Amino acid sequence: MTEVIVVGAGPTGLTLACELALAGIDTLVVERLPERVEQTKGGTLQPRTQELLEARGLLAPMRARSLARTPDGGHFAMLPVPLDGTAWDTDHPCPLAVAQGEIEAVLEERALGLGVTLLRGAAVTAVEQDADGVTVTTADGRRITARHLVACDGGHSTVRKLLGAAFPGRAGTYTAVLADVRLSSVSDLVPRAIGHISTLTREAGGHWVMLVPVGGDRYRFTGGVARPEPASDAGREKDAPVTFEEIAGPLRAVYGEETVLAAVDHASRFGDATRQVERYRIGRVFLAGDAAHIHPPFGGQGLNLGMQDAFNLGWKLAAVLRGKAPEALLDTYHAERHPAGAWVLHITQAQRVLADPRPTPDVLELREVVTDLLRQPDANRRMAGLMSGLAHSYAGTGAAPGAHPLVGRRVAGLDPALFATGRAVLADLAGILPAGLGATRAAPVPGLPGLGAVLVRPDGYAAWAADTGSGAAAPDLDALAAEACSSLL
Fold it and tell me: What percentage of the chain exceeds 90 in pLDDT?
């Protein structure tokens, strides 16, 4: 019996497969498409995701495949104010532009190298579970059983539908086109380099377009009608094929007759629907990435939210399967990641109002107010932390009463190489821990001069911490021993 079946070979599913295989879990990835789609699509790795990838040795190959861009920060609602991530004590303050197809290629290579089995062209048609495991049936008649299944099969998740899981939220109000295109000629209005998003978006002739140069004559096209009619997120329009003229026309209208579309390599539609499942765990089945939550694409959040779901679930599932943690640890996946997803839905809906392609006079006034606020250092820092993921924490989510205030928060400043094996790290920063605990002696963490020791989860958040210095209490080693991830040392 396979230990875990992952349905979906996108960034979320492949990240999870890598995490499980790194922990020695027998993992099978089932993907309905026969081959990887080489589309730019969600091509932004946020700073927090970059930190997690660096901890597993995956950031360098991502950087090698990245697109050149100016060192601008992220954005909120496409407003013309770069978000400054440097105040968050990170080596990666700016988003990294990498085509989604390249992200998947790096993750797939690592997963296969770790022993993951990838089964392509295998659409799931049935899911059954009982007290002992989960069985999936594929379109070609295969029946595969595992102890657990994780649905990472996108916003139209087949697994979610087969389970009958409700997907409540707000229906979409419009659809837009996302495409990889080639241009045979361009006007002076076409951007020559990837800069801040506010420099890449234009509106004219009843159309809005964001054109991102990705090398040579290739561009990523995102665009739509400036004042579209409302459309259902389940309507036929979203599933209709994208025509050549749907892209060529807006290009001419926005960038002039000199801008000529030569070819469309890949094209799809997206909407602004916002939905989230009520439970991320249904028995032995878990939902992650777009299978669990969908939202407008503002700020480049979706791909990163899904990959961070995977980093959270991977070590927990591995620990329980290996008998190193109680079954109850699996429930913390929902407890931690559902609020994280809800917050991203909240913040993308706010951006949807400000970035609406049909702004009312009131929205235009609001844009000016928010733009002015984002130019204030404290507000910019706060928003930079939210959009990059650097400000996210699990503080207060299941922490024991009296726990150190660092518990549940991101730990910055430790050597990323310490996390390459996917295990928890007990860092002794001041020589306060007794021998035999498996602690690693490390330099003090910048910005936390009073911290004496910290147990860091495999996903980079503090599980236990103790201060040091004159008058400080002795480390609470009983609390350390009680932490589920201490068994992963």
Answer: 79
pLDDT at 14: 98
SS (H, E, C) 290-308: HHCEECCCCCCCHHHHHHH
**Cα distances (angstroms) measured from residue 88 to each of 308, 387, 482:** 18, 12, 30
- Run of H or E including 267: strand 260-271
Report the range of poorest mean pLDDT among 49-58, 226-235, 315-324.
226-235
* Cβ neighbours, 10 Å, residue 295: 27
DSSP string, 362-430: HHHHHHHHHHHHHTSHHHHHHHHHHHHSTT-B-TTSSPPTT--TTTTBB--SS-GGGGTTS--EEEESS
Residues contacting residue 122 through CB under 8 Å, at least 6 positions apart: 30, 31, 32, 138, 139, 140, 142
Contact 428, 439 (CB under 8 A): yes
Write the CA distances from 204 to 73, 189, 208, 223, 250, integer angstroms.
Answer: 26, 12, 7, 11, 8
Q: Are 2 and 92 in contact (CB under 8 A)?
A: no
Q: Is residue 232 within 8 Å of residue 241, measured between CB atoms?
A: no
Please check the confidence at residue 96 and state whether its pLDDT lies above 80: yes
Tokens standing for residue 323: 């008998």
